[in-house]
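Homework help board

Subject: predicted structure for assignment chain

Our instructor gave us this sequence and asked us to write out the predicted structure in token form, then describe one feature. I got the tokens but I'm not sure how to describe them. Can anyone check?
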Amino acid sequence: MQTVLISGAGIAGPTIAYWLKAAGYAPTLVERAPALRRGGYVIDFWGVGYDIAERMGLLPAIDDVGYHAQEMRIVDDGGRRIAGFGTRVFDELTGGRYITLARSDLSRLLYGTISDSTEIIFDDEIVALEERADEVRVQLRRGGERGFDLVIGADGLHSTVRRLAFGPQQAFERHLGYVVAAFEARGYDVRDENTYLMYGQPGRMMGRFSLHGDRTLFLFVFADAAAGWPGTPADQKAKLRDLYGRARWEWPAIRNELDRADELYFDRVSQIRMGSWSRGRIALIGDAAFCVSLLAGQGSALAMISAYVLAGELARAEGRHEEAFSAYQTRLRGYIGAKQRGAERFATAFAPRTSWGLWFRNQIVRAFSLPGAARLAIGRDIADKLDLPRYRWADRDKSGV
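My token output:
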């Protein structure tokens, strides 16, 4: 039985661990954080990733923790609606297979599929990799040195496996000119159930979405051509207070919640572009290989797709990793490239840099209320044109396929 070390317990890591187990491999998952991450941001989940979740038996649980958003609403300084559209078009484009949920909830559900059957190591990380003829020697910060047949990097935009095996991040990262921040608050006074609210100034967006359990998610997107950001949570909060200091709408109340927040997600909006997603016995999946950017809205689904396909190609190749890695990239390269190009167009819609850009974006959003307009404008980016392969898994009873 071949052994595989997977770095990262977010979305891609647990997914590939599940399918590798079904294919007869012995996966080990290592995660730098001491526990599964909480909070963060919500994602819109649809398409082929939704199909994979169905094959894993997760749709009832996803529906239970998720949200069926009904409107995206843009508001002015006084909170009055100035543009927006109903989300029925997404249901139409996806055949009703569309839901919003917290990324951390999806991660938790995926983790639950492997927690009783897979070796999982928290509070540790890979610090060195040495590929040999028949294995990869891995040095863990706490766990010492171990050998594995394969190593999979599922550790996100700032992948350690990519850095150790392929080179520094700057060689592959393409910054899209924005930074995103998010945090949760409990007991916020104003709630608009199943509605995205967005407030914008040139180069800055502030959003709000009501969550279960009397929680509210706040999202910030702002232009930052320098691609830099403060490193400490205190500095990050100071950066937001400075950038949004002249904002109206609900900013004073949101600022108070920001000051009290224990956790703050803060990162630049970037893509990863690589000529190859594998090298020897080491391969990358999800954001580590091809991050389309957080603002694309489909990163989690793409992470699950890449995990499923790589595990399936390893199963099909009966462990011949060079053959499997090549087939994995051949199958997904064009599909991922199209998603990355679509994400570049979409990023500027969150925080147009000029007053004219804001006005034009709002006119486009208003036009979505016209019959067929939304389908014409975003249909090509929502539609998933990928036939999900059916692989022969060793553990077919467990995988349910």
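Reply (TA_rk): Your tokens look well-formed. For the description, you could write something like this. The mean pLDDT is 89. That's the kind of observation they're looking for.
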